[in-house]
């Protein structure tokens, strides 16, 4: 059994709609209400998340901040679009020396292991806590319309979306 398969089995990881495998490992009992009281959530949630080298976390965004913590495997590239529409890349892992990275609430982002023949194993903490109703998977066409003004952006949008909509 490969290390990847061992981690999936050991932690009971399930397929995630954005790609990869996950399992929620903690949901805070404490509740918080967002500014303006629009909704209330667990104070935070955490998951284990594994991406195989031949897979990716498709472009998506959530309502809360999300912090990723690197554990093992190859470096992971996290791509995002800044508020000004610039494509950004942050690497997590041993080679990069960066082991934690936070994506701000409402930011479009995607991720992909740096080595096709490996995997990346991370934890993600979301605060206020994650709910699937706060999750939005991007359509390729929407992102191309918003950010596809240069070849580099189009390439990453096309590579990290699953279906052209």
Oligomer: single chain
Helix content: 10-25%
Coarse structural class: alpha+beta
Gyration radius, in Å: 16 Å
Biggest sheet details = 6 strands, antiparallel
* Proper CATH architecture: Sandwich
Distance between the termini: 37 Å
Determine the strand fraction and express it as a percent band. Answer: 35-45%
How many distinct folded domains?
1
User: What's the rounded overall pLDDT mean?
Assistant: 95
CATH topology: Jelly Rolls
CATH class descriptor: Mainly Beta
How many runs of DSSP E, i.e. beta strands?
Answer: 13
Structure write-up:
The protein has 165 residues and is α+β, with helices and mostly antiparallel strands. The protein has one domain: Jelly Rolls. Helices cover 16% and strands 43% of the residues. It is built from 3 helices and 13 strands. The strands form 3 sheets. The chain has a 6-stranded antiparallel β-sheet with strand order 1-2-5-12-7-10, covered by helices on one side. Strands 9-8-11-6-13 form a 5-stranded antiparallel β-sheet, covered by helices on one side. It has a two-stranded antiparallel sheet with strand order 3-4. Strand 1 and strand 2 form a beta hairpin. Helix 2 packs antiparallel against helix 3. The chain starts with a helix and ends in a 6-residue tail after the last helix. The mean pLDDT is 95.
Short recap of the structure:
The protein is an alpha+beta fold and 165 residues long. Helices cover 16% and strands 43% of the residues.
